[in-house]
C-alpha cells in the first residue's frame, strides 16, 4: 500500500460520509462537529525506544504495515477517519519482538494526523505511550494487533490545545493476549475518543482505564467498547470524570458477548463528579449478551461535590477552594492509582493539578 494511494482514496470519500455517531437523548444530539479545513503540513514526533522493538516512519512504515494499515479501523468508517487518512502526516509502524518500551510525543504547531500500527509478536511485551501537546487540529488512530500470549500496555495523555481532537483506538487480541488501555483528556475544545477491543482469542484480556476533566465550555465524548468472541475472555472498564463550569461529558460503554464466548467475565464502571450546576453529563452503559454462561455487569453514576466531605475538610482549617481541590485529586486516585506506568501516572497528576490551578 502506498501513502499517496491512501490519501487519494480517502479524499474521494470525504463528502459521501457522515461524522462519527454519538449517543443521543430525545430531541438532542449531544456532539456537534465543526467543519474542518486541514492545512497541509509536516509533523515530526519525538520517539524514544528501549528494548527489542522495530520502529519505522513514513513510507517505510506504510510498506511494512501492509494490509494491516486501515484494516482494524477502516479509512471510510466515517468522515473524520477519511479526513485523517487524506491528510496523514505521521505514520509509525511498531513491531515488538520481546520486552520493549516506546514513547511518542507530538508537540507541533501544525495540524497533526497521527497513525500508529502495532504488531506485538508472540510472547512479547510492549509498553507504548503517546503524549499529545500540539496546537492545531488533531486526529489520532491506533491499530494494535496482539499476538499469542503477548501483552501491550498503551497510555495516552491528550493535552493538545485544539478546536477538535478525534482519537480512534482499536486492538485485535489473539489467544491469551492482553491489551491494557489508559486514556486521559484535559485540554482542547471538542474531544471525541472511541476505544475498541476485539477479544478474538481464547483466554484474551483487556483493561480500560480513562480519566477526563472538561472545564469552561469544553466537550468530551468518550466511547469504550469490548467485544468478547473467544472463550474465557476478561474485560474490566473503569473511568472517572470531573466536570466543571459549563462543560459537557458524554460517555458510552458497550460490552458485547458473542454466542460462543463461554466463561467470559466483563465489567464496566463509570463515575462523574459534577462541580457546577451549569455543567452537563450523559452516560449510556450497555450490555449485549448472546451467551448465558458469562459474568457481566455495568454501572454509571454522577453526583455533586459531597457536602459532608467539604464540611469536614473546612472544619480542619482548609479553605473551601483548598477543600475542593483535595476532593478532586482524591476522586481521580482510584483510577490513577491503578496505572502501572510511573512516568505516565505523574504526567496525568500534573495535568489534574494544572486544571485545578486555573
Structural features, described:
The protein is built from six helices and 18 strands. It has 358 residues and is an alpha/beta fold. 19% of the residues lie in helices and 46% in strands. Helix 1 runs antiparallel to helix 3 and helix 5 (320-336) packs antiparallel against helix 6. Strand 1 (24-25) and strand 2 (28-29) form a beta hairpin. The model has no long low-confidence stretch (mean pLDDT 92). The strands form two sheets. It has a 16-stranded mixed sheet that branches. It has a two-stranded antiparallel sheet with strand order 1-2. It has one domain.
Brief account:
With 358 residues, this protein is α/β, with parallel strands linked by helices. It has one domain (3-307).
**What is the radius of gyration?**
20 Å
How many DSSP helices? 6
Total of domains? 1
Strand portion = over 45%
Sheet of most strands:
16 strands, mixed
Shape category: globular
Helix content: 10-25%
Helix and strand string, N-terminal first?
HEEEHHEEEEEEEEEEEEEEEHHH
Low-confidence stretches: none
**What quaternary form is this?**
single chain
Mean pLDDT: 92
Q: Structural class of the helix and strand makeup? A: alpha/beta
Number of DSSP E strands: 18
**What's the N-to-C terminus distance?**
46 Å
Amino acid at each position: 500500500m502506498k501513502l499517496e494511494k491512501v490519501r487519494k482514496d480517502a479524499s474521494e470519500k470525504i463528502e459521501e460520509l457522515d461524522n462519527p455517531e454519538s449517543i443521543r437523548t430525545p430531541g438532542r444530539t449531544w456532539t456537534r462537529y465543526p467543519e474542518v479545513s486541514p492545512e497541509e503540513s509536516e509533523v515530526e514526533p519525538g520517539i524514544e525506544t528501549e528494548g527489542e522493538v522495530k520502529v519505522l516512519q513514513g513510507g517505510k512504515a506504510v510498506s511494512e504495515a501492509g494490509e494491516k494499515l486501515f484494516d482494524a479501523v477502516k479509512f471510510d468508517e466515517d468522515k473524520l477517519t477519511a479526513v485523517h487518512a487524506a491528510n496523514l502526516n505521521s505514520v509509525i509502524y511498531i513491531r515488538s519482538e520481546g520486552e520493549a518500551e516506546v514513547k511518542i510525543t507530538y508537540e507541533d504547531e501544525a495540524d497533526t494526523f497521527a497513525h500508529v500500527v502495532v504488531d506485538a509478536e508472540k510472547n512479547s511485551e510492549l509498553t507504548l505511550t503517546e503524549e499529545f501537546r500540539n496546537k492545531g487540529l488533531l486526529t489520532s488512530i491506533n491499530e494494535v494487533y496482539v499476538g499469542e500470549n503477548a501483552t501491550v500496555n498503551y497510555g495516552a495523555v491528550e493535552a493538545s490545545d485544539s478546536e477538535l481532537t478525534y482519537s480512534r483506538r482499536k486492538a485485535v487480541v489473539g489467544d491469551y493476549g492482553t491489551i491494557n488501555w489508559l486514556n486521559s483528556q484535559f485540554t482542547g475544545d471538542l474531544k471525541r475518543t472511541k476505544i475498541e477491543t476485539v477479544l478474538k482469542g481464547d483466554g484474551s484480556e483487556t483493561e480500560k482505564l480513562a480519566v477526563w476533566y472538561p472545564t469552561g465550555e469544553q466537550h468530551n465524548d468518550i466511547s469504550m467498547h469490548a467485544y468478547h468472541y473467544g472463550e474465557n475472555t476478561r474485560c474490566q472498564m473503569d473511568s472517572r470524570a470531573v466536570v466543571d463550569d459549563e462543560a459537557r461529558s458524554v460517555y458510552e460503554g458497550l460490552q458485547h458477548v458473542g454466542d460462543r464466548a463461554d466463561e467470559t467475565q466483563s465489567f464496566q464502571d463509570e463515575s462523574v463528579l459534577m462541580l457546577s450546576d451549569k455543567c452537563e453529563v450523559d452516560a449510556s452503559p450497555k450490555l449485549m449478551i448472546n451467551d448465558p454462561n458469562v459474568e457481566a455487569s455495568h454501572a454509571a453514576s454522577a453526583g455533586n461535590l459531597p457536602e459532608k466531605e467539604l464540611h469536614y475538610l473546612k472544619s480542619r482549617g482548609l479553605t473551601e477552594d483548598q477543600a475542593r481541590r483535595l476532593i478532586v485529586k482524591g476522586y481521580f486516585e482510584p483510577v490513577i492509582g491503578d496505572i502501572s506506568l510511573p512516568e505516565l501516572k505523574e504526567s496525568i497528576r500534573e495535568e489534574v493539578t494544572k486544571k485545578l490551578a486555573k
